[in-house]
Amino acid sequence: MAPTFAASRAALPPGGAQPCLGRPGAAAGMQTYLVGGAVRDALLGLEVKDRDWVVVGATPELMLQQGFVPVGKDFPVFLHPTTHEEFALARTERKTAPGYHGFQFHAAADVTLEQDLARRDLTINAIAVADLAGAELIDPYGGQQDLKRKVFRHVTQAFREDPVRILRVARLAARFADFSVAPETTQLMREMVQSGEVDHLVAERVWQELAKGLMESTPSRLFAVLRECGALERVLPEVERLWGVPQRADYHPEIDTGVHLMMVLDMSARLQASLPVRLACLFHDLGKATTSVELLPRHHGHEERSERLLKSICQRLRVPTDCRELAEVVAREHGNIHRSAELGAAALVRLLQRCDAFRKPQRFAEVLLACECDARGRLGFFDSAYPQAARLLVALAAAQRVATQPIAEQAMASGADGRKVGELIAQARVAAVQASGLVNASACG
């Protein structure tokens, strides 16, 4: 039996059942409907965080008369003067050029609700509610049935006109891991890739959808859907190339580097990691796809290659600085962090310095979390401990207890330059780590 909106009304945030000034439809011919993800999530019994409304039978002038504030650049969207929720005039779309911006919009009082719903991506997002009591559910494209079947299905052929919709389907798959993509929708997405429509995606939209997808409960599904339709090769070819690349079975029982990467990403979700950590997990092994065939399944020097590749991706997608910098440290140092139990005090201090742990201890903790995801994202290691993290945090705490200011002042008073001051501080930190009992004489210096 399909879910009912009335039974799921409690999932909606407070806001009242009459969103317009006065009541919905109070102005001549004006009708207001709750649409999209809010309706979908309420029907699934999930918490609804944001609500979107579509207004039928209105004009921009009428919206302004009722006190709404215009915010839309490409088509008429308004903010409610009290709730600040978004209200969009019902509209139709016509493709005029490739890419996300290649549309001509028609928003007028004669556009019907069914016409507006027809331009939406998936049937489960093309359900409307006339009032929050759920007295009238408008579902002209079978969205409730697809919710029951747990299927992502495109509404009409208009889906093919917007390449961002491929990314949205993949992101929703990461959120609703038990849903599948309808075969005809997968085929449609393949055709969009083959026609080159995906090549017109702008960097900002790719990053926006990628970031959202990485933060979902099963991020591996995002990449499974993109791979299935061929879009990953166009959007992130550096990641796509990891599948089929072997690793040493004694370290990686799952062998395939792409399979390992998906395990690492899902581990990052399991450990509720931040976006910078999850992106670092995604990019940490990129260099393995460029290992010479004669060296496989070993990957000597892949860390440096990974760092170089991720820098290029981050520049291409305009990734925020905090995400990029954390990913660089993880790519470059994750092998050393994994092997840190073998390091002596001097090598540990050098590792901490390369990770900039003294200046950014909170970021270093995130570096260690990404490394833990990497270590546990392997077949048979999901529930394993990662003692390297605790050990390195103890080493950092011991080194941080060194009072650096007196060392610097004394050294400078005797004529030492900045480089010498740095050496003396490092020596004191090494002595502190050694004195902590964390390392033994046999450990590598």
Structure write-up:
The structure is a single chain. The chain is of the alpha+beta class and 445 residues long. Helices cover 46% and strands 8% of the residues. It is built from 19 helices and eleven strands. It starts with 30 loop residues before the first strand and ends in a 10-residue tail after the last helix.
What keywords describe this structure?
19 helices, 445 residues, alpha+beta, 8% strand
Number of continuous helical runs: 19
Q: Per the principal axes of the C-alpha atoms, what is the gross shape?
A: elongated
Largest sheet: 7 strands, mixed
Rg calculated over all Cα atoms: 27 Å
Mean pLDDT: 89
β-sheet strand percentage: 5-15%
Q: Quote the distance from N terminus to C terminus.
A: 66 Å
Query: How many individual β-strands?
Result: 11
Please trace the helix and strand order, writing H or E for each element.
EHEHEEEEEHEEHEHEHHHHHHHHHHHHHH
> Unreliable runs, pLDDT <50, ≥5 residues?
14-26
How would you briefly describe this protein structure?
The protein has 445 residues and is of the alpha+beta class. It is elongated, with a radius of gyration of 27 Å. Helices cover 46% and strands 8% of the residues.
